[in-house]
Amino acid sequence: MEFKTIIEPFKIKSVEPIKISTPSERKIYLENAKYNPFKLESDQVMIDFLTDSGTSAMSANQWAGIMIGDESYAGSKSWEHMHSTIKDLTGYHHILPTHQGRAAERILYSVLGGKGKVFISNTHFDTTRANIEYTGATAFDIPIPEATHPKDYHPFKGNMDIEKLEDLILKHRPENIGCVILTVTNNSGGGQPVSMKNAKDIHSVCKKYGVKFFLDCCRIAENAYFIKHREKEYEDKTYKEIAQEMFSLADGAVMSAKKDALVNMGGFLAIEDEKLSEKCSSLLIITEGFTTYGGLSGRDMEAIAIGLKEIFEPDYLLYRIKSTAYLGEHLDKMGIPLMLPIGGHAVYIDAKEMYPHIPVNQYPGQALVCELYLKGGVRAVEIGSVMFGKYDKAGKLIPAQMELVRLAIPRRVYTQSHIEYVIEVFSKLIENKEYVKGYEITYETEYLRHFTAEFRKL
Ligand code: F0G
After folding, report:
1. Does residue 281 register a pLDDT over 90?
2. Which of 128, 239, 248, 327 could make a disulfide contact with 312, Cβ separation 3.0–4.6 Å?
3. Separation of 236 CA from ligand 1 center, angstroms?
4. What CATH number belongs to 23-52+313-457?
């Protein structure tokens, strides 16, 4: 017997209260936060869709693992557990633990980067790009053309443009390419999956020119779900086998374990090449910690090892992908302009289309983020010109390719009624959308300005 209702495949053992606020309270909170939801206090937020990173609910098994975490400085049993789990999953020989994804990125890209070097990705995540540019290198995003058209359907909208990849390698010469980075799923490009065929093609091009190929694999289990259900030849493979095959195509991977590995903190860098791993290990020891803990406690490593197994459970992945799609499909039916199809960890709204009257230099995405908070206490993040905008020499904004707002769904945290509430908030939000105003930036930093920027309502 088949049921159409997919239930959360877990029971709740421990709860965290949500403080219910009123619109007038939220107006004051947001003014005090200078219209940047990153500056809100967490108890001022009712539904927190800011990020799916580090916000997962751990399982009873992971909490049990926390208790048996081995805190020895060297040779910790928990490291052994984390190490063997990652080795089994990725197949790479050298595994370096780090306190989160960007620490792994900083180590790898400062070894491979530097002035004159070029990095190529389907889309560099913001910390990835920042770590690369910080070394003086240049980062190019080459998603397939469909990726920048929110409404166009493509089963693997996260794919990299293979023709452009080859052109860029030839133009900048293979010896100047730091590496090619495939982000799975493509977070900044709308949480869209990457096909195995695309990973194979990238592998072939990189091999042809002797260029290194790395995965940014923080959502690789969710990506494996889409491959199994959208790429015919993989329908009989397990999710783990699919991930393993993808790892086998690359020379290594960086992972923020705060996403698919279901933990609140952690990451790693996995490398096949011994010489490169030696250079990275030296930096690891100087800046993160000894090679058997990186920046992590033993208990964190234990939880990562357990989480990396739980993410490939079919019931979990089915619930995860379907519950994200549930939110997206309801918003779509309501006429909210979305990035389609719905990706794995988040629903992305096309704010430029939602508020066509707000020009990009008045940040329509920021306007939507503020409206969501004011109306419903829902915290989301702008992924548009606040996050990726640059200025030309005359100080004029060079806008991002898209003005998106991301509703990132923490793993195993919210139930269906929370999602129903968010859908209702949107139904109220579209009633007065013509009257919503844009914002200007009154304070910003050089790198990653979206975290600390301050705004004024126009
Ligand atoms: N790569 C990708 C694709 C990411 O999404 C992130 C983080 C990182 C690298 C960096 O990892 O945070 O552990 O240092 N993304 C979070 C987000 C912050 O909200 O999407 P980190």
Report:
1. yes
2. 239
3. 30
4. 3.90.1150.10
